[in-house]
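Z., the sequence and structure:
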Amino acid sequence: MVKLASYGSLVRLEVGVEGLIHISKLGGGVNLKEGDKVQVYIESIDVPKRKISLGLVIRERECDI
């Protein structure tokens, strides 16, 4: 599930665990809405800072190309 923020989209991976898709990675006609279910991949994990950076899986039929 997606929550929107000014710096990107927070994605709940499981209860109590969220990752961030940074706004710089959401270009190219991607239009996420609050509550959307999305498929993501983990780009990096920063254990000391407790941060998970995510990337959005884009399927060809979802692209505007």
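DSSP finds no helices and five strands in the chain. The radius of gyration is 12 Å.

Let me know what you think.
H.
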